[in-house]
Design brief:
Blueprint: H1 3-18, H2 34-73, H3 85-120, E1 127-134, E2 137-142, E3 151-154, E4 156-160, E5 165-171, E6 176-179, E7 186-189, E8 195-199, E9 205-211, E10 223-229, H4 231-241, H5 251-262, H6 265-268, E11 292-293, E12 298-299, H7 302-310, H8 312-315, H9 328-338
Parallel strand pairs: 1-5, 4-10
Antiparallel strand pairs: 1-2, 2-3, 5-8, 6-7, 6-9, 9-10, 11-12
Helix pairs in contact: 1-2, 2-3, 5-9, 7-9
Amino acid sequence: MNRPLRLLPLLAPLLLLAGCDGAGVQSVLDPAGPQADRIDIVWRLMLWVCGAFYLMVLGFLAVAVLRHRRRRRAEGEPPEPHPGREGGLRAALAGWVGLIALGLLTLIAASYVVDRRLAHASGKQGLNVQVTAHQWWWEVEYLDEDPSKRFKTANELRLPAGVPVRIELRSSDVIHSFWVPNLHGKLDLIPGRANEIHLIPERTGRFRGQCAEFCGLQHAHMAFDVTVEERGAFEAWRAHQVTTAAEPATELARKGREHFETSHCAMCHAIRGTKAAGSVAPDLTHLAGRATIAAGALPNTRGNLAAWIADPQGIKPGSRMPFIGLEPDELDALTAYLETLR
């Protein structure tokens, strides 16, 4: 192996330090809220402290190797140990232990302070959302004291910038984990138990969330979109979400709705304003307005939507959506109707 390649494992922490400012839609290094920002501070502090110790260890190792080589090259018998060398080694060892203890105490103190500050967000009132994890998709319900303002969506979370958000986390089957690294840390969703996470999104943009706990065959395909927008845009979106599905404008779309209401689809899915009132699969009232389908597995395009309806197991093996077996004209009509649900 070439010498530069041998050095890559040793230089990895330095390369990581050089790349800490990369932005991304799913990155702990690009915080978009105070909770994520404080977590990022602890992460960077740990990286610098551990990186400093790592470099010191490499320095001590280099000194030891050089001394050993000099001794081997020296002629004659090795020199007698210096009388004061043992005392110096003891002092160096004591100093090293003290330095390690100081580093650990620094990290513990920083973690404690950040945990306390993260807890402060729980006392602020704002938007209330309930997220329920299923194998393998996310059910999102926006709560309100007025029942007429409550609605459900799936695999997407829209939040107003600058507004405290309380998210109640539940699971319908196994342990999942809710993680939007740009906004907060991870929190588990445990069957039979409700957890809460509090955050304040401060920067507009689109971010990606992910299940961070292995939950079965399609764990990797259990993502969701988080869109943070100005309050006016959020309120307009929310007002539209409580409306019922639009009436189909074409004959093909009308046939698609009729097929949806009279087939297996209505047994699992709900579309407000129609006969479909299923509750075991995502609410499709405004499906066409979502960026992705199948919990982030595919972009929401006509071709992908048709492929997902025609053969969900071919795209996401093990998912709860069964193969129905549609005729080409039925698939075309059903896809046309679902595309109108904006």
